[in-house]
Write a structure and sequence with these properties.
CATH superfamily: Galactose-binding domain-like
Number of helices: 1
Low-confidence stretches: 16-25, 29-33
Number of domains: 1
CATH class: Mainly Beta
Strand content: 35-45%
Mean pLDDT: 82
Oligomer: single chain
Shape: globular
Length: 182
């Protein structure tokens, strides 16, 4: 009997430990660590802040409004966000590196009110161009993105709010910038 009780206690404890590593019910499954950003000792960084570097395709605006760019985890100094609450809509814009930069980096945040993960595509030239990077962002999550864009003249960043997403109050592309390693 003592062996059975001891065995049962061990089984229950190992089950609890396994459940604890999986996280709360309803949270996204643990994922692999984010890919390493491109690293170099010295960088020539150009923030994407000028209107000549950005154009709206649907549902976005460039801003430096601190309240509009605040998230629970971070506050951004500049960025691109949805211009109004979006539902069943595209979120898409263009950036113009004009072939002068090798890398593009930003952070993407979607608010907790979005009911399902959103996939953001970074494409070469336009919405039908080659996919340079695909990033999945879960509600309430911020994902850092680093993309190699050598030679690209125009980037299209795009996502879509579908019927299962409900409404998006806040989608933020935080502090986008182009850079080269020296």
């Amino acid at each position: 009997m003592k062996r059975f009780v001891l065995f049962l206690m061990c089984a229950v404890l190992s089950g609890l430990c396994a459940c604890q590593t999986l996280g709360p019910i309803g949270s996204p499954a643990p994922s692999a660590p984010p890919p390493q950003a491109y690293t170099c000792d010295r960088k020539d960084v150009v923030p994407v802040r000028a209107r000549t570097q950005y154009s709206d395709d649907y549902g976005t605006m460039m801003t430096s409004d601190a309240a509009a760019l605040s998230t629970p985890a971070r506050n951004y100094r500049w960025g691109i966000k949805n211009s109004k609450t979006l539902s069943l809509a595209y979120f898409t814009f263009y950036l113009r590196p004009e072939g002068r930069y090798r890398y593009f980096r930003t952070s993407i945040y979607i608010d907790r009110g979005v009911k399902a993960p959103m996939t953001f595509l970074v494409r070469n030239n336009d919405r039908k161009g080659d996919v340079l990077k695909s990033v999945t962002v879960y509600p309430g999550q911020t994902v850092d993105v680093d993309v190699e864009i050598g030679g690209v003249r125009r980037l299209n960043v795009r996502s879509e709010l579908r019927i299962n997403h409900d409404k998006a109050e806040k989608i933020i592309i935080g502090e986008p910038e182009f850079y080269n390693c020296r």
